[in-house]
Amino acid sequence: MRAVDAPDPVRVSGPRLLPVLPLEDLCLFPGASLALVLDRPTAVSAALLAARCGGHLLALARREGGDSPRDLHSVGTIAAVREIQSLSPLEHRAELDGVTRARADMLVGTELILAEVVPLEEGDEADEWGPAVEALARYLHAHADLRAFLEQQRRSAEAMSWVNLACQHLPITGSARQKLLESSAPERCLRISRGLDALLRKEQTT
Predict the structure, then answer these.
(1) Of 10, 67, 136, 154, which is most buried by a Cβ count within 10 Å?
(2) How many H helices and E strands in the chain?
(3) Which structural domain range is residue 37 located in?
(4) pTM of the full predicted structure?
């Protein structure tokens, strides 16, 4: 396994050109990490190019039922490529750290997809953050293994990273996860606080 050189700082405003990593049934959230085995040429090319050129890529979830390599959601997360390991000529393992949400304004290419990327403002989670973390604490109290896992996955000291980790790893559908990623921080907090309590009630009655 080789570590990637420290990525260049991400510009918080203005477009930039980044390779696109398509994700299958997954989303990457800011402040969270993701380890993937890449076995598609498009994904491998994106990770290797990012490692050589600044250390960042744009992780975009694939649209449900999409046939084209470019059938991707427009909102994803700029990720820092932390490590890449060659497993075979066709497979690589990559470790990613989510940095900031972003929108792909334009996609070009097929085997290697590039996107003109514009970072998105998170917004101030304000009063919505407290209830979201309280709901997460209630859920994790009943799932000790998940709490230990989330603590290992946390890559940011910001309080909002706990909410983002919950969005990324809790048992919800891919479409619901994408809607959370597309939401601003206050809306995401509100949705996850309601969703976690509903999920816990459902689990306790089954």
Answers:
(1) 136
(2) 6, 7
(3) 2-119
(4) 0.85
